[in-house]
Amino acid sequence: MERGPFLNDEVRKEFERFVVIILHTDGTDERHLDSSIRNQDLKRERFGTAANPHYAVLDPTGKKVYWEKGGVFGVEELLAGLRTVPSQ
């Protein structure tokens, strides 16, 4: 989320509707390896993939309302997906 379309003002504005959580799964140094493996397992169990990047929007009950299994998205594609999520 730190690069690409996430730097776009429209995308940032759209993300104001959400609580953004970043789950790091690609740490390779010894200090972060255990948590990365646990996070990969969690992501695989919850979303059926360990692919990076992976984007998911959950409702307040934890139900998936929008998600993409990996891939790099342009601004318009990401905005279109986020705008399918109803406001709470």
Task: Summarize the structure in words.
- There is one protein chain.
- The chain is α+β, with helices and mostly antiparallel strands and 88 residues long.
- It has one domain (4-82).
- 38% of the residues lie in helices and 10% in strands.
- The protein has helices spanning 9-15, 30-47, 75-82, and strands at 55-58, 64-68.
- Strands 1-2 form a two-stranded antiparallel sheet.
- Helix 1 (9-15) packs parallel to helix 3 (75-82).
- The two termini are 23 Å apart.
What's the short story on this structure?
The chain has three helices and two strands. It is of the alpha+beta class and 88 residues long.
Give the topology string: H per helix, E per strand: HHEEH
What is the beta-strand fraction?
A: 5-15%
Taken together, the total number of domains comes to 1
By oligomeric state, this entry counts as single chain
Q: Which blocks of ≥5 consecutive residues have pLDDT under 50?
A: none
Distance N to C terminus: 23 Å
How are the strands of the largest sheet arranged?
1-2
Count of helical stretches = 3
Biggest beta-sheet profile: 2 strands, antiparallel
Task: Classify the helix fraction into a percent range.
Answer: 25-40%
How much is the radius of gyration in Å? Answer: 14 Å
Class from secondary-structure proportions? alpha+beta
The tally of beta strands, per DSSP, is 2
The shape is: globular
Average pLDDT metric: 83
